[in-house]
Structures are given as structure tokens and as C-alpha cells.
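Bench notes, afternoon.
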Amino acid sequence: MRWWDIEHVLGLERVLFPEDAWSAGLFWSELAHARGPGATRRYLVAEAAGPDAAAPAPAADPAVRPATAPDFGGGWDGLVGYGGLAAVGGTGDIQTIGVLPARRGTGLGSRLLGELLAAAVEFGCHEVMLEVRVDNAPAQRLYERFGFTKIGLRRGYYQPGNVDALVMRLDDPATLRSAPPGPSPTSSGTPSPPPPQGTKTHG
């Protein structure tokens, strides 16, 4: 993700999380920590080629572009997902994952999560944490398939809806690199709730 992606990400934010969408300022602040030798963030966007980015995904996967990669330019015209990781003191935290509703069930959420976990390994994280809404069962199954386990509950974590959050942890994300998870558990195409975003104000 680069600064020129923020406007498009905000549009998807408002669709996925109308009650607690992140502000442009928050994304700018996160990206400020995603570059340079002391970077502690990794933010990705997924873009689909073609005139109808909101249509069901074709056989070819969307491109997942990291914050530090050059813009693809030209024919890449549809942002269909994004994700972010913070890494501090050997602990990673999945800050956000969002996928365009029309792209759910295609494995894109799994790919974004896998890329973020690979980034956690690059940052030297020995564990990765996240929060997920208690009513988001599809996301919980996805995280469990990647090896996350439930370790706690935070009451009223997501506001203004006052929804509780499960706290989940993955030990040693490096072990996933040799045994990547299989297809997305929502591959049946059944609509699912929005993926979680792991910050105090964002569900």
C-alpha cells in the first residue's frame, strides 16, 4: 500500500465497516511506519485486472502488492482487498484485513493473511496476535486453520456496536512457511460477515 492507495482503501473501508471505518489520517500514520530501516508496519493491497473489478474473481489470483513495491500502473484498476500488520518487540499484530464482498470465498482473505504472516517472519516476530468479533465465525475458522488459538475475551471491544472480541494468538509464524494452509473455508460462495479489523476502534 502506498499513499495513492488510501483514497481507494477508504472507499472499501466505508463499505465493509460503515460504523467504524478508519480515517485517512490513521492510514497515513500507519504508512509512515511502513518504510525505511526502522519500519514496524506492513500494509498490502490486492488489485484485480479488468474493467469489472467487483465481479467474481477469475481463475488468476489478484495481485497482492506490499507497501514497499512499485505501483503496477497501467492495467491494474480495481482494489479488491487490503491488510496490515504491526510488529513491535517480537510480537506481530494483525491490524486489519478487508476483502470486497464480491471477492469473498475466492481465497483472497487467506492469501492476504498468509502474506502478513510472512511479513511477521521477516520482522522477526515469534508470535502474532489479533482480535476478531465473537459473531464472525467464518473469520475465526480461517484463523484457526492458520494455527491461531483463542486465548481471551475483550468485552465491548468493538464500538459503537459494543461487540465483544476474541483474542487469538499464533505461536512461531515461521512454521507456516513450509506448510501453507489449504483453500479458504468459505469457498462454497456462501456470503459471510466482513473480515475483522484488529484495532481498539475498528471491527
